[in-house]
Amino acid sequence: MTHRCPTEQVCMKPFDSIRKFFSARLQPSKQCRAAATQPQPLRSAPDLDALLEATGCPQATALVRQVARTCFHIFPASPGTKGKLGCSRLGGAPDLPAGASWPRAKNGQLLTFYGQIKLSDVSAITGPPLLPAEGLLSIFCGEIDCPAELNEVHVSIIPPGFALQASALPPVSDAFADGRIGCLNPVVVRFEQGLSFPTERWAFLRALESSAPDGDVDALLQGLSAAPEGAIGQFLGLAQFSGDDVQSEAYFAEIGRVNQDRLVIWESWDEWGRAKAMQSRMGNGQLHRPWSSLDDANVKWILENRAAIAAGTEKWMSLLWIGSNKQMNLWINDADPIYFLAKINDDGSLDLSKVRAGATQS
Asked: How many C-beta neighbours within 10 Å does residue 153 have?
């Protein structure tokens, strides 16, 4: 479907190697390793407390609780059927207000329909203050070329009381914005409440290491990012993709510093100086230096604005992500997820006017 920008792929590799180095510094006990062999998804505060105790990290309880966000894991309930009018559904064709037409991109092509969420299905579990308790949230998107770009996304909430009509699938000749996807198979879905965490945020990783120096932080991170078996996506919360802090990417893109989020791993000018000295010899004999003085001004700005960066990143959250799955016939990159991010307004609501979409690439 789409491919991540080559520069992003290159820039994530140093992050991955640094994280492996960070994990290797820890010396987990055999008991902790056994506890993390098959991490179970976290659904409540007691589950979280049990994980912290099992991994020897109870000192990090306050830190982890502070960053936790409620999410809703998405499970297929009835693949291959549209279900009732106005139900929660991924793929297929949308239910729209009477007289409304299928949204199109600026070039006139149809946008791909990724799904609709009946908000009362979620508020019945726990009322999210970010969105209305009722209504039908619908998400459409065009072709995703690069996560750094602001893609064409159409998100709307149809208030309760509006008469809905089932849309017919457009003819094949009426091309979609991404003609390789077109209409996805319909899947009626259900939700289960869970917890999500910023497991790819470098500041959080550093804070964990400091707060639980004798614990098995690597096992803790595995538990914090575990998803329930059979889930094909997640509604709200934080997107937790290995090697990708997409919320941080969104903030840096918002302020016009695309791709500079990779530099937040350096917490001092001395660390940055040592990073610029890193080098490795490639197969063709050339020296590869992943960090250079070309980013000196960017690193200086990041070091001087850490508080603002943290606050700005915190404003972005995951609206919806959908993993590649056979039920929808949705295959993204190397079977990685597609995600939609929204920004939290000052009043605590979600701004759905500029939703950012992307796809991961492992």
From this structure: 24
